[in-house]
Description:
Number of domains: 2
Low-confidence stretches: 1-47, 86-150
Strand content: 15-25%
Helix content: 25-40%
Largest sheet: 4 strands, antiparallel
Strand order of the largest sheet: 11-12-15-14
Oligomer: single chain
Shape: elongated
Amino acid sequence: MDGFKGVYLRPMWGNSLPALHFAGEPCEARVTPRNAPFLDATPHPLSNFLRYSSMAHFLCCSLMNRVKLTLLAAISIALAFTFSCSGNGNNDEQSFIDSSSSSEFSSSSVSSSSEWLSSSSEVLSSSSSVGESSSSSEEPSSSSMEEPSSSSSLPLCGTTSYDPETHYCHDNQTYSCGNLPYNPLTLFCDARDGKAYKWVKIGTQTWMAENLNFNATGSKCGNVLTGNGSLVDGNTTTCDTYGRLYNWATAMAGAESSDATPSGVQGVCPAGWHLPSDGEWDVLMTAVGGDATAGTKLKSEEGWNTGSGYIPGTDDYGFAALPSGNGHSFVNFANVGDSGFWWSTSQFSAINAYYRYVNYYRENVYWDYYNKNLLFSLRCLQD
C-alpha cells in the first residue's frame, strides 16, 4: 500500500464496531490494512499485550515524525487502556494489566517484544524528563523559605532595634563602650580607649569612683598586687585593679598649676572631666564630714592589707578609695595594698605638688606635698 496515511485498529470482538483510524505519516512496519482483522478472532493470552505493542510502535513512529512526544503518548496510551479494559469476546471485564498473570508470559513473547520495550522506554524517559522539569519549576526557592532575620527578634530602644550584648538602652537611647553595654546612670565611657568607669556624686561634685587607667605616654603599671615590685609600660593585672600611675607632669599634660575651683585642667582625663585642684579636694573632705574621718568613709571595704592596726573602710559614699601604691624614679613600685596616693593640680613649688593620701591603718585622709617625679594615682572630676 503505497502512500499509506493511517493505521486502523479493530477491537478483538469482531466487526460489529467501526475501526478506529489514527492519522499519521507513513510507517514502514506493523501497519494493519483497513479491512484486515487486527488480531485473530480467537482470543489469545497475548492479545492485549500485542495490541498494546502495535499501538506503541505506531506512537513511537508518529512522535518521531511530529516531535509531539508527551501529548500523543498520553492520547495513545489512554485509548489502548480503554480498548483493553472493554472486555474480551465473552464480554468479561478484565484489567489492562494483571500483575499476577504478568509472570506467565512466555520467554519467547517477551523476547519478541524487547524491541518495543526498548523504544517505549525512550518515550517514557523523554516524557518523564518533561514532567520533572515542570515540577522542579514549581518548587519554592530556598530564599523564600529562609527564616526571618535574627534582627527582627532584637528588642527596641525607642524605635530602633539593638543588641543587649553590646548596647544598653536608657531613655530611648543606646549606650556602648568598647563594644560592651554600659548604664549611663552609673558609668561613663572614655571614648579614647573604650573603657567604662564608675562615677559617684558626693555633695555638689561628681567624681570617678575608680582610678584612671588611661595609657598616657609616661604612665606606668605595677607588676605585683601586694608589697613591692617594679614598674612596666604595658598593662598588668595590677593596672586592671588599681589603674595606672602618673607623675605630675604626665598627669597635667603640659598644663600650668591651678588652685582654682574648678581647676580647669583636663590633663589626661577624658573629655568632660578634669583633674581636681587642692581646693576641690577640700570640698570633698567637707562633704564627707572632714579630714579626720574621711579615710574610713572613703576607703573601699575590700582590697586593703589587714595587718596590725588595720582600720577597715566603710565606703559610705561609693568613692571606693584603693591602696594602689606609688612609684619611685620610674623604676620601683611600692606600698600596693597598704596606701593610696592621688595628685592635685596645685603645686607647692617648682619641684613639689600637693596630693592626698590614705593608709590601711589610718582613718583620716592625709594632705601633703611631694616631689613631682613620684608616680601617683588620679581621680577625675566631672566638669
